[in-house]
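fyi for ur records
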Amino acid sequence: MSNSRRNFIKLSGLSALTLASPVGKLSSLLGNDYLTVKKSNQFGLQLFGIRDLMGKDPAATLKAVAAMGYKYVEPHEHQKLGMFYGMGNKGFKSFVNDLGMTIHSIHTNVYKDFEKNVALTSEIGIDYLIYNWEGPGKTMDDYKKMADDFNKKGEYCKQHGIKFAFHNHDFTFFKMGDAIPHEWLMQHTDPDLVDFQIDFYWVKYAGQDPVEWVNKYPTRFKLCHFKDRSKTSNEREKSGIVELGTGTIDFQNILDQIKKSSIKYYIVDQDSCNDREDPLQCSRVDADYMKQLKY
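which gave:
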């Protein structure tokens, strides 16, 4: 049986599966999209934004994500189900691949079970293990130590055939004295060992220009995250983060100005989808926006 035929059968069985699923309103949200996955630009989804649905029924939720046109997913380390949502690393990869999607990167706390998680990630050929949350309240001394630690973790990842990367929030882009922490991390990590995933939203929230940063370090950023900033809310998160295309960030303009960068992976990361009444509808709006972008 061909992969396309197998994927068709898996996706077309979604409506029956979700009748008994704890994931509400899946079939109504999908409409006719589950009958055929439309060809689109290559973009992915960070699963943190729909973490509650992934915690309830990862299989049905992943089928919904595939039907929206996402071509890859970026797992996060779920609080209860772990990095692979209770499926095991090989089972998760197989399920995702059968839906016509791939996995290029994964978010995890690299200060917990690091060697074990490197082994699990390497075993299924994921490109990037990404540290996604250093938290607020750090000092420049903390970031200096972090740069040294990133180099060590990057070396360990390299020895096991994968790459190490850091995903920013706003914290690293706020000035501390005469320094910007992210500048220190860029300048004091080995380019052969450490890459970066830029989150455009958080850079702009910190008052910085993501275009300037990417063009200043065109070979260091390999992945990027998309979420939009509200036109009306001043909240840092929650209502401050809105569906792509409904806020204030002109992503096409950003992409047009960073054509010479080394960014390969374009990933939706709308943290606030999980707070919506229909998180999948939120992800669908984001997918529709991503389809019309030119990367």
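The first strand starts at residue 44 and ends at 46. thats all i got for now
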